[in-house]
Each structure stands twice: as structure tokens, then as C-alpha cells.
């Protein structure tokens, strides 16, 4: 967005604080942004591929996929990878927190303990730093957003999905995502989305709500926000492979019966998800700070120093 | 008159214990070679026609069980296999039904007819398998059901006055649906197949295979086959029942190259190149279920039925 034009300093009565947003903007650009995205879902739902597609990078270069026999003994792990992405002078320090092992075990009863502990630990650390003497360089490792992957193969939410989301909806912004959406026809997608939304409401699960566009925003932005809100949960397809389709190279998946284009809005909601994430990164951080962190903080301080 | 030497002492003693031994044939039979040419047409080959007529009159019993997490397309696939509405999906099952809390066994019988041959087909569904948070021992109700059918049959078999045709409710075949994660088997898949491959013919299938490209399919199948082998899981056709070399070669090819079949099911028809085909319609093309370039449904059908 263009920085707001400031009025002529010669105008009588002009003080100059209209320039403040630009100063903040410049400072932020210099400082850079920090964003932590947690990714949760059973193995094989397309999480890593989607993350790589979203940020046009390979966050998992030396990945070894374990076999079923190995998975039997494993518990849920937390793996955080950080990348620094720069675009037009703006630096983003992006941390992706992976949770391999989630949903794989035969008995998933304890599957979310590790994840909840991790989220709480980051809040704890921030609280500690905030209350400390030297508060100049607090690193914000709090989880700002959690992409929860729902299987496209089921008929809606599974018992594990419901339990997990209820356990973290007061701690983190949940964005439900359906990956591998190319397995669903358009009708099946609509039906699945509706079913999931109904079940989310039925169980009282609080997912992240995009704020409505301000009344002074332009019509395009308002329309875009409306469209985004109507498409949740997003049905996406991820890929970083370039395929030849209709004479040009696109990112997609090549099947014997056709090509699925990742960036084609008629094929899936990938672009919508990306737009949502990018345009609401700041809001996601704000809600984490103002709502989830404050919740944690008040609970924690009430409990006293344990 | 006896043709051979007789031990008179023993003959008397023997006739008290066992009934009179059968008279030896008057004309001693010369051993017949395979190449013995008959002097004329006898009509022995009509026995095949006689058997066929008999079978048509009595019909077949076929009991097929389907096991797998909810939403993997089990009901649709069974309907596609038998080209009729024979699954749980079609007998008043409501798609909006909740996942049951424990594994249920639901057997639905239909009589279908083709070319004068009647088949009493029973589809045994197992809703609730693998859908809970804690899936420990969820195969037990299934194992119990299978053994109960064996028990029932045995009871009838050992009866003194037993029925001419014992109703056969034994499970002849169990289709196990593997989720197309593209990674590996899940711990639950291994546990189920380890326990049940000893009591029933398991045919593993990869469900909703339209979610994988050709390369992904080949890789996944290889990995699954290896995992099954490493864990000593004997799926149908089992090596120990290979009758002769011809059988073995044919079965080896199926075991080592084709299985597990990556399938797509559908009960909807679309027009493709002037023909009506069973398929799935997507914005990027129509997936033809019976097209071997698209998926291996036809292989599974031929394997199971023909």
C-alpha cells in the first residue's frame, strides 16, 4: 500500500503528526516482522507441500518419511524451522512449527499434550521477558496462527479434530484448512465445507474470524474480505512443480485426466488462503497479543508463581 | 471272485471289524497316459455344462467385508464393483450420520443376477473402525465376527443330520482400505492386517487414488508392499496356496507388481468421447473409473469377481 500522502507543510495549522504512520511503517520495515505459524494434522494430508507452496521455498530439504512400524513407538514431536524471507525491502522472519506424529498413533489420547505445552511455553517465555529488566529485544516466539488440517477424505470433523480444536481455541488462532482438495469435486467441497462449519458451531469451537472490512476501505477490498470469509474453511492444493498447461508453465499437479493448477481460483482456494494469511498477518499477531496472550497472562498471574 | 491272493485267516477276523471290502474290478485297469486318444467322442466334457447349469440353479454365496476409516469411499467402491446399489450407503444410510462410538458390524444382503446366475451377495460394513481418538483393539469386534461365522458353519457341518446346503455366512474376502497419504501405512493399518490376515483373505486397496499422480502412486505402492513384506503380512493371494508353477508365476506378478490396487469408485455416469462411463467430474477433467490409465479399479474387479 502506498504511504499516505502528507499535506503540504506550509499549510497553516499543520502540525505534522499525519506523518506518524509513515514513520511507524519505516521503522517496521527496518525492524522486520516476526511470525510463527504452527501446522497441525495427521501425516499425509499435504501440510509440508502446502507450506512450501505458500512461501515458495523448501522448508524441508532433507526429509525422511518414517514407515508405519516406526510410527508405532513415536510420540508427537515439535519441530520449528525458521526462514528469513525478504520482499521489496520488507523482512519477514517466519517460523513454521511442525508437529509430526500428531494423529498417527493407534491411541491418540495424549497427542495434544505436547502441542499445548509448547504453546504455553512460548507464552510463559514472553511473559517472563516482558516482566524482566531488559525489555528492549524481546523475541516473540508466540504462536500467532495454527493451520489445522482436516482430512479431505472424511465426511467432516473427526472426534480427534473436535477435541484438539476445543483444547487450543483459547490459546491460538485456528485456521481450518482442507488440503489435497483435488480429491473432491466442486459439489463435494461445498458439502464438506458446510458440514465442517456446522460441526464447528455445534461443538462451540472458536476459529479465527477475519475482521470485517472497515467502512472507509474501498469496495474491492470489502468484496475481497467478503469472499474470503465465505470460503472458510479453505480447500487448497499445494505444489511447487511446474507443469505445462495451455501453453504456459504453471504450478500444479499433472494427472492423466487433466492438470490441477494451484493458482487457479476455479481449481482451489490456494490464492485465497495466501491472501488471507498475508493481509491478516498483522491482525493475527494482534489477536494473539490482545486476546490469547492476555488470557494466558491473567490465568497465570491469578495462579501465582508456581 | 477275488482277483488277488487272499489271506483267509485275516479275512475272517477283518469282516467282524469293517464291512466287506469292495470287490476289485473284473477287468484290471491299465494306467492311462495323458495322451491316450479316445476312439470316439464320449461327452465327458459336457460335465462342465452340467456343473454350470447346477450352479446357476443353486447360485453363489459371496460375503465381502469392507474395512477402513470413514470417508475412504468403501460403500461407493462396493456399489461400483457390483454395479448395483448394494452397500450400506444405499439402504437407508444417512450421510449425515455420526461416527459410531464403537466399531459396528453391519451386514446387508442382496441377491443380484447376471446372465441367469444368481448371487447372494452380502456386504459387511464396519463403521467406526479407526475413527476414534483411541483406536486400540478396534479390530477385535471384527475378528470376533469372522470367528463367529466360522463357528456357525462348523456347528452345521458337524451335525449328524446336516443340511444339504449349509448357508455360508463366512467372510470370503476382506477389502482393507488404505488412506492415500502418499507416505506409508499407518500404525493401525499394520496392526489390523497383522491380526486379521491369519483369519480372512485380506485384499489391501488404496482408496481415493485420484489424489495421487502416477509417480506418487508407483512410489506409494512400492513403499506399502515393502512395509507389508517386512512386517510379514500375507495378503490374498497367499503364497502357500499357489497350486502350481503357473499359479505361482501369475500370482507373483500380481503380488509384486499390481497390488495393492489403487482404486477410484463412482456410481455416477458421464459422457466421454461418445460413451457413457462411470466417473468423477472435476473442473480439470473427468476421471474414468474403468480406464486403466486413470486407476486400477478394473484390475480389482477382474481380480475379485472374475
UniProtKB/TrEMBL annotation, chain A:
Gene Ontology biological process terms from the UniProt entry: cell division
UniProt keyword Nucleotide-binding, yes or no: yes
Alphabetic keyword roster: Cell cycle, Cell division, Cell membrane, Cell projection, Cytoplasm, Cytoskeleton, GTP-binding, Membrane, Mitosis, Nucleotide-binding
Matches recorded under Gene3D superfamilies: P-loop containing nucleotide triphosphate hydrolases (3.40.50.300)
CC per GO annotation: ciliary membrane; cleavage furrow; cytoplasm; midbody; spindle
Site label Important for dimerization, positions: 153
Pfam family of the protein (one): Septin
All residue ranges annotated as the Septin-type G domain in the record: 31-303
Single GO molecular function: GTP binding
Location of this chain's protein in the cell: Cell projection, Cilium membrane; Cleavage furrow; Cytoplasm, Cytoskeleton, Spindle; Midbody
Principal location: membrane
Highest taxon of source: Eukaryota
Family: Belongs to the TRAFAC class TrmE-Era-EngA-EngB-Septin-like GTPase superfamily. Septin GTPase family.
PANTHER family in the record: SEPTIN
Designated name of the protein: SEPT2 protein
Organism listed in the record: Emberiza fucata
Lineage: Eukaryota, Metazoa, Chordata, Craniata, Vertebrata
Gene that encodes the chain: Sept2_1
TrEMBL record, chain B:
Record Pfam families: Septin
One annotated Gene Ontology cellular component of this protein: cytoplasm
Region (Disordered): 1-23
Domain (Septin-type G): residue spans on this chain: 58-306
CDD domains per record: CDC_Septin
Main location (coarse class): cytoplasm
GO terms, molecular function: GTP binding
Similarity section: Belongs to the TRAFAC class TrmE-Era-EngA-EngB-Septin-like GTPase superfamily. Septin GTPase family.
PANTHER family for the chain: SEPTIN (PTHR18884)
The protein, known as: Neuronal-specific septin-3
Amino acid at each position: 500500500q502506498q504511504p499516505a500522502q502528507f499535506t503540504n507543510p506550509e499549510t497553516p495549522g499543520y502540525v505534522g503528526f499525519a506523518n506518524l504512520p509513515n514513520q511507524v511503517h519505516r521503522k517496521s520495515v527496518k525492524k522486520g516482522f516476526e511470525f510463527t505459524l504452527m501446522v497441525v494434522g495427521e501425516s499425509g494430508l499435504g501440510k509440508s507441500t502446502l507450506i512450501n507452496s505458500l512461501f515458495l521455498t523448501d522448508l524441508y530439504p532433507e526429509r525422511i518419511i518414517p514407515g508405519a512400524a516406526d510410527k508405532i513407538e513415536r510420540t508427537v514431536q515439535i519441530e520449528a524451522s525458521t526462514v528469513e524471507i525478504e520482499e521489496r525491502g520488507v523482512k519477514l522472519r517466519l517460523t513454521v512449527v511442525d508437529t509430526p506424529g500428531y494423529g498417527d498413533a493407534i491411541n491418540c489420547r495424549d497427542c495434544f499434550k505436547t502441542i499445548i505445552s509448547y504453546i504455553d511455553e512460548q507464552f510463559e517465555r514472553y511473559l517472563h521477558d516482558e516482566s524482566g529488566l531488559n525489555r528492549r529485544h524481546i523475541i516473540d516466539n508466540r504462536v500467532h496462527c495454527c493451520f489445522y488440517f482436516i482430512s479431505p477424505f472424511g465426511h467432516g470433523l473427526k472426534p480427534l479434530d473436535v477435541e484438539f480444536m476445543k483444547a487450543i481455541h483459547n490459546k491460538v488462532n485456528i485456521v481450518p484448512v482442507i488440503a489435497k482438495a483435488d480429491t473432491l469435486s466442486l459439489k463435494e467441497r461445498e458439502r464438506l465445507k458446510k458440514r465442517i462449519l456446522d460441526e464447528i458451531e455445534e461443538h462451540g469451537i472458536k476459529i479465527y474470524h477475519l475482521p470485517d472490512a472497515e467502512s472507509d476501505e474501498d469496495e474491492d477490498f470489502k468484496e475481497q474480505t467478503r469472499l474470503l470469509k465465505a470460503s472458510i474453511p479453505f480447500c487448497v492444493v499445494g505444489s511447487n512443480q511446474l507443469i505445462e498447461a495451455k501453453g504456459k508453465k504453471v504450478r500444479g499437479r499433472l494427472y492423466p485426466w487433466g492438470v490441477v493448477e494451484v493458482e487457479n481460483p476455479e481449481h482451489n482456494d490456494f490464492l485465497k488462503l495466501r491472501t488471507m494469511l498475508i493481509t491478516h498477518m498483522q491482525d493475527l499477531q494482534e489477536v494473539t497479543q490482545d486476546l490469547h496472550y492476555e488470557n494466558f497472562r491473567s490465568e497465570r498471574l491469578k495462579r501465582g508463581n508456581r | 471272485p477275488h482277483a488277488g491272493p487272499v489271506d483267509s485267516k485275516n479275512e475272517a477276523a477283518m469282516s467282524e471289524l469293517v464291512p466287506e471290502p469292495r470287490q476289485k474290478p473284473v477287468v484290471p485297469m491299465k494306467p492311462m497316459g495323458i495322451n491316450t486318444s479316445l476312439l470316439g467322442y464320449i461327452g465327458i466334457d459336457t460335465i462342465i455344462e452340467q456343473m454350470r447349469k447346477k450352479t446357476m440353479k443353486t447360485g453363489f454365496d459371496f460375503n465381502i467385508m469392507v474395512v477402513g476409516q470413514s470417508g475412504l469411499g468403501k460403500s461407493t467402491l462396493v456399489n461400483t464393483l457390483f454395479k448395483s446399489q448394494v452397500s450400506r450407503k444405499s439402504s437407508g444410510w444417512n450421510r449425515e450420520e455420526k461416527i459410531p462410538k464403537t466399531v459396528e458390524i453391519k451386514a446387508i444382503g442382496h441377491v443380484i443376477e447376471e446372465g441367469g446366475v444368481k448371487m447372494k451377495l452380502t456386504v459387511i460394513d464396519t463403521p467406526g473402525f479407526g475413527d476414534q481418538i483411541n483406536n486400540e483393539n478396534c479390530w477385535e469386534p471384527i475378528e470376533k465376527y469372522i470367528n463367529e461365522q466360522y463357528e456357525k458353519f462348523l456347528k452345521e457341518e458337524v451335525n449328524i443330520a446336516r443340511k444339504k446346503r449349509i448357508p455360508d455366512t463366512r467372510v470370503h474376502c476382506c477389502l482393507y482400505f488404505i488412506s492415500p497419504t502418499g507416505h506409508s501405512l499407518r500404525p493401525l493399518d499394520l496392526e489390523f492386517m497383522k491380526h486379521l490376515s491369519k483369519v480372512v483373505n485380506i485384499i489391501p486397496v488404496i482408496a481415493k487414488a485420484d489424489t495421487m499422480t502416477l509417480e506418487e502412486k508407483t512410489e506409494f505402492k512400492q513403499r506399502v508392499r515393502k512395509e507389508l513384506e517386512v512386517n510379514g503380512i500375507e495378503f490374498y493371494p497367499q503364497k502357500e496356496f499357489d497350486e502350481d508353477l503357473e499359479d505361482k508365476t501369475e500370482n507373483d506378478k500380481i503380488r509384486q507388481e499390481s497390488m495393492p490396487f489403487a482404486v477410484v469408485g463412482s456410481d455416477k455416469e458421464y459422457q466421454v468421447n461418445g460413451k457413457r462411463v462411470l466417473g468423477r467430474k472435476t473442473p480439470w477433467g473427468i476421471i474414468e473409473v474403468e480406464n486403466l490409465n486413470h486407476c486400477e479399479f478394473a484390475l480389482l474387479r477382474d481380480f475379485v469377481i472374475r
